[in-house]
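Question (not urgent): is this output format expected?
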Amino acid sequence: MQWWAGDDRVNEGVGWFREIICPGIDRVETLFSTADSFEGVGVLAKAMSGEIQEHAYWGGMRDRFPISQVDALRTAGSLLAEGLMPGRVRVRGIDNLALIRSGQEWTDTTGREREIYLREVQPVLREGMDFLRDHGPDIGCFTNRYMYHVTEAFEPLEKTFGVSCWQSLEHMERWAESHPTHLQIFGSFMKMVRAMNFDLKLRLYHEVAVVPAHDQTFEYINCHPGTGLLRCAKAG
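Got this back:
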């Protein structure tokens, strides 16, 4: 905190940002396509469930949240940008902001599966991620980044993930259920599944959180106004 609060951060001519969420366990859910490799919050788990019923239908994500049994998880209001001092801005969050990180790993794929994923699935996935990056605010996606895992020498691994913040879980659901960009991603993946007779080495996962405003911290120092959630925040 002392480093972050120091005057040097404002004066050194570099942009810095931090986007932190701290949801309770009843507001997080994570799902894996295989039972032998975990990512993100999954590596903290002492044990994992077996196969679940709340999957493979629109709305399954919501049903996997314990909090959804007693809370509709609606949101209201707008992101507000507050100047703390010259060069520093804090974005005040909204209740039930939704965050998703969805990842893919094709390290163990070979032959036809690898060819189909790299030629037919991954390009469509990238198009969808680029759409959310460039046009996401039009459909309730505040920000989206498509990232590659790298080694300590910055060499790319065969692992990627997209991470995005949404105005609400409902906005995320509507994109997944009906938007052409996600339907193309889903359709190309199911085509690969059928071609491989449901026997895949591709590893998939996602983790989703729905977060109260008081569990969000978004701060920006010397950042471009299009950085992260700044681009969707109104002046507070």
